[in-house]
Amino acid sequence: MVEAKNLCMKYDKGKHNAIENISFSIGRAEFVFFVGSSGAGKSTILRLIIREVKPNDGSLKVFGRDVARLPRHRLPYLRRNIGMVFQDFRLMEERSVYDNVAFAMVVIGSSRKEIRRRVPHVLSLVGLKDKAKSKIMDLSGGEQQRVGLARAIANRPAMIIADEPTGNLDQGTALDIMNLLRSINLRGTTVLVATHNREIVERFKKRVLYLDNGKLVGDEQKGIYTNVH
Fold first, then answer.
1. 12 within domain boundaries
2. Do residues 6 and 77 share a domain?
């Protein structure tokens, strides 16, 4: 699903290494945590995967395609296979829960019939079927993140990328969100999560890629957060 070889990314006109000489491979249906302190390079890797930025050196293949060489007109096809979950939710606050999830399907050209069938289904999966008509601004933080997750899975992506998805949530709600991500992963979706949450990483015991100052310093199956150097 994702294969990085000697991947490098520099900011500030080459003066700052965001990531340096990183190599890793992630297979289909894996669940992987990216951990490390602020500025370690976690979010940069996620941005590279969705081709929000291009690497300065090395290669990065997503779904078998080198994303750096992907023509701009092919980017929508890449991104429709990746569902994004953000720390700050990025929802349309004045619109309903239903509309927020439906919008993700509208932008890729789904039919009205498919939207009417699919949206209630994904809202049911995240426990929000009864909130379909509620406005985003009237929901709790945990409910808003559930909407974000429903939106991310609406188009049946092959991969979910979550950048600090529990950062603004209390620990109980954070566990609920992570359990939802785990259940999605068990259905065959690859899940990548960047997080600072030590308890979450240690509880779920999934593969962990440890980043420190832009370098990959550890890659462990069933890793624990405390192994970060």
1. yes
2. yes
Number of domains within the chain = 2
Q: At what angle do helices 141-153 and 171-186 cross, to 10 degrees?
A: 10
**Among 151, 41, 45, 186, which residue's Cα sits nearest to residue 178?**
186
In tens digits, what is the pLDDT along the chain, a chain of 229 residues?
Answer: 999 999 999 887 655 679 999 999 999 999 999 999 888 999 999 999 999 999 999 999 999 999 999 999 999 889 999 999 988 999 999 999 999 999 999 999 999 999 999 999 999 999 999 999 999 999 999 999 999 999 999 999 999 999 999 988 999 999 999 999 999 999 999 999 999 888 999 999 999 999 999 999 999 988 777 555 4
In a domain, 136, yes or no: yes
Give residue 21's domain range: 2-81+158-227
